[in-house]
Amino acid sequence: MVIHTDGGCRPNPGPGGWGAVLRHREHVREMCGGESGLTSNNRMELMAPIMALEVLTRPVSVHLYTDSTYVRNGITKWVLGWERNGWMTAAKQPVKNVDLWQRLRTACARHRVEWFWVKGHAGVADNELADVLATRGMQEAIAQGVVC
Question: Which GO terms describe its cellular component (predicted)?
Fold first, then answer.
């Protein structure tokens, strides 16, 4: 399974959206969602892999691509220390977005996930599609005026 994710807000903070492209052999699934109220780029970047991993019905090996160094570094380098320190940073401050980090950890635990960083807006087709889906998710959330 290969997953590309993206998220963002306009403005930041502001309404936001997330998008994910899931590929397994010849099957492709596109997902998006968003929030019409105040959210942040980082929250939307986290929601994309959470939603993509949570939709998988059985444990699989996943190559997950994100253009967010915050998400990739957080899940591969920082999260174990945060958990060990009671969800406090090295500076003894509460971890931001702890609810989503915990949810992402749970979602990852079901699968074997390898994380990759990809440069955003650099012509990687599925990253570009994830960006389009994130924008669609934000626009749909704004149009509905509700949290998706």
Answer: cytoplasm
| pLDDT tens per residue, range 36-51 | 999 999 999 999 999 9
Question: Active site includes 67?
Answer: yes
Question: If you classify domain 2-146 with CATH, what class do you get?
Answer: alpha beta
Residue 97 main-chain phi, psi, to 5 deg: 65, 30
Q: Between these two residues, 145 and 25, which has the higher pLDDT value?
A: 25
CA distances, 117 to each of 1, 4, 100 (Å): 16, 10, 19
Length of the chain: 148
Which position among 35, 45, 126, 137 bears the catalytic label?
A: 45
Of 17, 35, 67, 74, which is the active-site residue? 67
Q: What is the pTM of this model?
A: 0.94
Residue 126 known to bind ligand: no
CB neighbour burial string for 2-33, b if at least 16 within 10 angstroms, e if fewer: ebbbbbbbeeeebbbbbbbbbeeeeeeeebbb
